[in-house]
Specification:
The protein is mostly helical. The chain is built from 18 helices and six strands. The strands form two sheets. The chain has a three-stranded antiparallel β-sheet. Strands 4-5-6 form a three-stranded antiparallel β-sheet. β4 (58-61) and β5 (66-69) form a beta hairpin. The structure holds s-citryldethia Coenzyme A (SDX).
Length: 428
């Protein structure tokens, strides 16, 4: 298929542009020479039809509801793998053998502590600061402490800073929670698993031992897997664009955290649980579904719809199953889950949602689990950022190590005033 071409005719003149094929999924029209050839730009503000890069990390088929990480289906990884193994897979391209996994886990566990002076950063925030504000600030500040791993042209620096970011995010997130509730910070315990360590740093207190509930640890680890990476979503694209200028990885990940915070993206998990709580009871669902369909009402069903999935988000399927597992293990129920189940059923049977192909996404059920485990809704997006850090770091490494990498610099369709002369204030 090397000679597959796309033709474009403007003003009677025709140009050919090469078509590139991936290992699977849509072909791309290589328009890198379009402006130089035609003097015109393409126009795609939300990047609905634009491939920004070549990547071998994650493949999504939105029509079929397929999500693969380095070729492995998310359902199989969620069922059989763990977050450290998936992290290794995303970073290195293959599943590790037992020795490789043990080495990776040991490396990560040795970077879980923060520089002691970073603790004072937390003191500068109000106690009621949103944890995502804290995450943005503290992660950005890491570049002030780790000068020995910010030379992005050095593969060893890239490796160390990648491991530092993956390792320190649980510590930073747990400390944001502790600071909010006024409890002392807990230091990491490297004898625990990555996820167990996070749970102890979050819910443990110095005054007593913390018992890690196996079902909670398993569910939390699975939630991390489900959030690890997701192709060129808004926050990953932010990390790539920030990284394309040569900014250090800590600053790039802080930029990704800022973007993820938005309710249209990672902030949807917090917004979704708040929405379910506002609905409160199943009898109020029809009113909210009508609001979501009303063009004049800005209200949208949070946790529903997706730019790529026009079928069920495979992560939502796993998440719904995990709700039941956690509820059973903790012997809890939450009327919110019943509201979510009935809301999903009503929406999926409503013509508006069927026509627009709107389905539950990863954020629709995660809140019910996180709330049952004990997290406040304000921590939900911080947990998403914790898990997505490995995806951001893997995508950043893939971009930086691409020899063809160049700074991202989109153009525009200009609709402002054309050139005009300055008018002195006395004549205005
Ligand atoms: C994540 O990109 C990723 O991969 C993201 C993510 C990841 O892992 O990184 O998967 C994580 O961000 C999941 C999405 C979380 N966001 C939400 O749940 C917020 C609610 N969803 C929507 O705001 C919306 O669906 C988006 C933002 C997710 C996607 O929006 P698009 O692709 O820009 O689609 P759109 O806004 O153009 O919607 C198409 C139509 C519109 O109606 P029309 O203008 O065509 O008449 O569907 C409607 C929208 O009004 N619509 C909804 C809706 N989502 C879209 N109507 C009601 N409720 C909704 N949730």
């Amino acid at each position: 298929m090397a000679d597959k071409k796309a033709q474009l005719t403007i003003g009677g003149e025709t140009w050919n542009f090469p078509i590139m094929e991936g290992s699977t999924g849509p072909d791309v029209v290589d328009i890198r020479k379009l402006y130089a050839s035609t003097g015109a730009f393409t126009y795609d503000p939300g990047f609905t039809s634009t491939a920004s890069c070549e990547s071998a990390l994650t493949y999504i088929d939105g029509d079929e509801g397929v999500l693969l990480h380095r070729g492995y289906p998310i359902g199989q990884l969620a069922e059989h793998s763990n977050f450290m193994e998936v992290s290794y897979l995303l970073l290195n391209g293959e599943l590790p053998n037992a020795g490789e996994l043990a080495d990776f886990e040991n490396t990560i566990s040795r970077h879980t502590m923060l520089h002691e002076q970073l603790m004072t950063f937390y003191r500068g925030f109000r106690r009621d600061a949103h944890p995502m504000a804290v995450m943005c600030g503290v992660v950005g500040a890491l570049s002030a402490f780790y000068h020995d791993s910010t030379d992005i042209s050095d593969p060893e620096h890239r490796r160390i800073s990648s491991h530092r970011l993956i390792a320190k995010m649980p510590t930073i997130a747990a400390m944001a929670y502790k600071y909010a509730v006024g409890q002392p910070f807990m230091y990491p315990d490297n004898s625990l698993s990555y996820t167990g360590n996070f749970l102890r740093m979050t819910f443990g207190v110095p005054a007593e031992n913390y018992e890690i509930h196996p079902a909670v640890e398993k569910a939390m680890d699975r939630i991390f897997i489900l959030h690890a990476d997701h192709e060129q979503n808004a926050s990953t694209s932010t990390v790539r664009l920030a990284g394309s200028s040569g900014a250090n990885p800590f600053a790039c990940i802080a930029a990704g955290i800022a973007c993820l915070w938005g309710p249209a993206h990672g902030g949807a998990n917090e917004a979704c649980l708040n929405m379910l709580r506002e609905i409160g009871t199943p009898d109020r669902i029809p009113h909210y579904i009508e609001r979501a369909k009303d063009k004049n009402d800005p209200f949208r069903l949070m946790g529903f719809g997706h730019r790529v999935y026009k079928n069920y988000d495979p992560r939502a399927t796993v998440m719904q199953k995990t709700v039941r597992e956690v509820f059973d293990a903790l012997n809890v129920t939450d009327p919110i889950f019943e509201v979510a189940l009935q809301l999903e059923e009503m929406a999926l049977n409503d013509d508006y949602f069927k026509e627009k192909r709107l389905f539950p996404n990863v954020d629709f059920y995660s809140g019910a689990i996180l709330s049952a485990i004990g997290f406040p809704t304000t921590m939900f997006t911080a947990l998403f950022a914790l898990a997505r850090t490995v995806g951001w770091v893997a995508q950043w490494n893939e971009m930086i190590s691409d020899p063809g990498q160049k700074i991202g610099r989109p153009r525009q369709l200009y609709t402002g005033p054309t050139e005009r002369d300055y008018v002195p204030v006395s004549q205005r």
